Amino acid sequence: MLEAQDLSIGYGKSPIGTGLNLQVREGEILCLLGPNGCGKTTLFRTLLGLLPALSGSVLLGGRPITAQTRAEIARAIAYVPQAHAPPFPFEALEVVLMGRTARLGAFAQPGKTDRAVAEDAMRHLGIHDLAHRDYSQLSGGQRQLVLIARALAQEATLIVMDEPTASLDFGNQAQVLARIGALAQIKGTASHGVILSTHDPDQAFALNARVLLMHRGGVLAEGPATEVLTEANLTTVYGLPITVESTLSGRKVCLPRLATDTSATMMPDAMTSP
Ligand SMILES: Nc1ncnc2c1ncn2[C@@H]1O[C@H](COP(=O)(O)OP(=O)(O)OP(=O)(O)O)[C@@H](O)[C@H]1O
């Protein structure tokens, strides 16, 4: 569905990442993991066709994304940004309806069918009762679910999410994560492919996702979470000793060693480079 081949990403002429290859199909979740500043957002912008690739290609449905119109891209990919409070009061349902506008084009007015699709998306995520609430007054977790509903209303098969659980409390993180997992698990036409960035490797284990682990401007490893998120790889990328353990329920979790002696702590490249 979406494929990047030998992609170089960056701004102007300087590459931030090179040799990037990835593939996402319906029913799959791909987690982008890597330290601050490694290029996850830049990669997203390139995959969405918002930023030109420095070299290599992005194929959407087998065709170069550069050859597709914004409307074509919007029918295939929905983007879920981090949930910030907007300056203007919108009803939550109006925010979800914006997913239809992305699909219809800037000047088309959403009609009855669009409203029904938007309401269905909210119902599907269990937030229909928020439809007429002021979006700016919702909690962070509720806002994130509204933005995911907006992506569902767009009826794109691929959903790209930029740190969907950032700034959510523990309970809301679990709730949003469960909804994301369900998006890929639905069988048939409603199944989605999901690409998300996160700073929490445990989420990749919880979602049973594939992982693209970014490091020093490239990909250190790509594949199932259980194969990519090894102690050695995590320790290399995050620059401190990390162990991976199995819980009683069988899920893997990552445990960084919290050094009290800061002189013994290695720092990741992104944090130490000027
Ligand atoms: N518009 C821009 N012009 C030039 N450089 C930029 C621009 N936006 C980001 N960068 C640089 O590109 C690099 C990668 O940034 P990016 O935001 O893609 O990283 P990230 O992995 O998403 O980081 P984080 O995990 O902190 O969100 C950084 O060094 C950043 O300073």
Describe the structure.
This protein is α/β, with parallel strands linked by helices and 274 residues long. It has one domain (2-272): Rossmann fold. Helix content is 34%, strand content 26%. The protein has 10 helices and 12 strands. The protein has helices at residues 40-47, 70-76, 92-104, 112-124, 140-153, 170-185, 201-206, 225-228, 231-238, 269-272, and strands at 2-11, 14-24, 29-33, 55-60, 63-64, 77-80, 158-161, 193-197, 210-215, 218-224, 242-246, 252-256. The strands form 3 sheets. The protein has a 6-stranded mixed β-sheet with strand order 6-7-8-3-9-10, with helices on both faces. Strands 2-1-4-5 form a 4-stranded antiparallel β-sheet, covered by helices on one side. It has a two-stranded antiparallel ribbon with strand order 11-12. Helix 6 (170-185) links the parallel strand 7 (158-161) and strand 8. Helix 3 (92-104) packs across helix 4 (112-124), helix 3 packs parallel to helix 5 and helix 4 (112-124) crosses helix 5 (140-153). The longest helix has 16 residues, at 170-185. It is globular and about 55 Å long. The model has no long low-confidence stretch (mean pLDDT 88). The site of adenosine-5'-triphosphate has 10 residues, from helix 1.
